[in-house]
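Researcher: Here's my situation. A collaborator sent me these components and asked whether they could plausibly form a single complex. I don't have experimental data yet, so a predicted model of the whole assembly would be a useful starting point for our discussion.
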Amino acid sequence: MTDTAPQHNVVNQEISRRSFLKLGWGAFLGFLAASAGATLRFIFPNVLYEPPQTFKAGKPEEYPLGVSTRWTKEQRVWIVRVQDGIYVLWARCTHLGCTPNWFQAENRFRCPCHGSNYTPAGDVIAGPAPKPLYRCAVRLLPSGDLLVDKSVLEDRPGLRDKPQFFVKV
Amino acid sequence: MTPEELKKKVLDSQFWRSMFRGGAWKDTPRDRAQHILGNVWLHLHPGRVRKNSLRWNYTFGLGGLAFLLFLILTVTGVLLMFYYRPSVDLAYRDMKDLEYAVSVGAFLRAMHRWSAHAMVLIVILHMVRVFLTASYKTPREFNWMVGVVLLVLTLLLSFTGYLLPWDQLALWAVTVGTNMGAASPLLGSEGPFSIVSRSNDIRFVLLGGSAVGANTLIRFYVLHCVFVPVVAGALMIVHFWRIRKDTFSGPPITPQELPHDKVDTWPHLVVREYIGAIGCMIVISLWSLLQKAPLEEMANPTVTPNPSKAPWYFTGLQELLVYFDPWIAGVVLPTVIMIGLMAIPYLDPDKDKGVGRYSFRERPLAMTYFLFGVGMWFSLIFIGSFLRGPNWDIYWPWESWFIHKPPPPHTWSLPLGWGLAAVGGYFIIGMALPLLLKPEFEWQKALRNGFLVILGLAAVVRICTHLLWEQILWFVIFGYTFYLLGVLVPRRHLVNQSKVRYAISMVLVLLMLGVLMKMGVRLGFHIKYVLTLPQFQLNI
């Protein structure tokens, strides 16, 4: 018998046990990694059904000098009127997210969960909070109402005094 | 037919014998072993057990009671699920219904709540007992680690459970807890070296959104009712199986004692288990009849109760959070505590010593640090539970919460250079000090001389600076504690260890004492951060 079959080295090359197992395990591990990745992605929701973050806070004239707690229960913010304008503090402790209380006599915000204290400007004076209170974006509507946006926040001194976070009165 | 004959007839009937393997019951040792080994529920027991492990004051039955409480929690929890709907609008109403409209609802809810509290306590006590009798030593190191994970899962079960009533405690505890996730290094948006944002960090996954809401409730419901119990159940199987395979711990015995050392599990162990279970059921039932489960006002995402206190087993953590940044108190320290606990069996130099008995003298090193750590943890729990009032100020138990305390003084932080020197110096000098001093010394004399030196230092500090007497007192107390536990004990018991073992043990010791030292400088000197790098959100 003569060997008449043409030589197709590439096609006839035997798959070694080692390379077969390498491929098999590789595919299996790849499948596991992809499954883990897909599961991880699955637990991040794409659509949130959360309440809107903007609200109208009335006219600037309605706020006398000092800290106003008018919106604390409803919108979780304090409106602070200073000599030349108004800024809005988000009433969320930067430590672990509780709502601090305003104490007029002590001129401080004080948090009931771990005892952080803030000045009316939002700076930390005592307790464990690592950062100043956030300020919310605020602007004056043509109607003369204040529009507060709690989704735009800033806590860094300097940046927080920009016009976006401060309404001149 | 007399009752005796009837009993025999029943036990020998084809029906009975088809259910219970082992043939006619003749009450021989073989029968008793067969009764255990041939029964699926009982076969995790060995056929015979060592007498020592049956003494009530050896184990106090704590492990068994923890499992019983898990079973009570499963049964009461499944029953509560029939009435509870995990939605923001309905959850709190369903709690009220359970309290006032459902027959036995209030009792079942109380039993579920109090059993959960009891389980946390019993699991902690079980760990302490296992430690005190050195039951974690070879071959039981791995089972000790499984136990530590089960302790964490027990706490997680409680934590995920208390969002479900949707009351104020629920909302704020979970707000605080998930915000600690946001403080994690790397994977939290507010943690050091953060690589994620508010909308893809750990907190976002836990909450299923940006604030505690409907998504959070269903997530915690699934975690509480399915995920964590299944994981805990699987680990319990491993835990029990290893006890069975490694045998109950006990003191070593001589070959002469060996034949008399064991007794039949049936009835000796099983009867004790039943007695413990009945006693526990009676106590929990009576307690739940007399004491309703607390239910606060309905969750309000804008108003935090003042003060807002965690349940007792988390007030220690809550108190710790006062002194440290959340990433340390909420993430790093719990992780280090967990790893430190798991490492105990591998770091303990006193191999095989003190197994099966309560003996401080045989293993002073392990006992000193473990008891100190547990004592510290329960002191924090005590402070958080009983000494904190409105605005998280210190109130003595006899002081009225209606008269508010003056606000706390301003805090300050060390400049960067000083901070680096303080933290670096603490660890470098702390690591070196026990090695530099000579290993042979007289204990009593060292105690006295150390005290005199620290008093002398305090006098110098008092003369050279304007510190208050109160601050000098803090200096003496914390300085002497460090001298005792950070210098003398390691010098006596740790310096003879291998370098690696010494390094790991000493780092853990210094971390534990460091927690105390940081609390000291905050309480005494109002120092907020010893070391702070605001650009990386890294504060210590």
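Model: Some features of this prediction you could bring to your collaborator: The mean pLDDT of chain A is 91. Chain A touches chain B at residues 43-45, 48-50, 72-76, 91, 95-101, 103, 106, 108, 110-115, 117, 125-128, 130 (CB under 8 Å).
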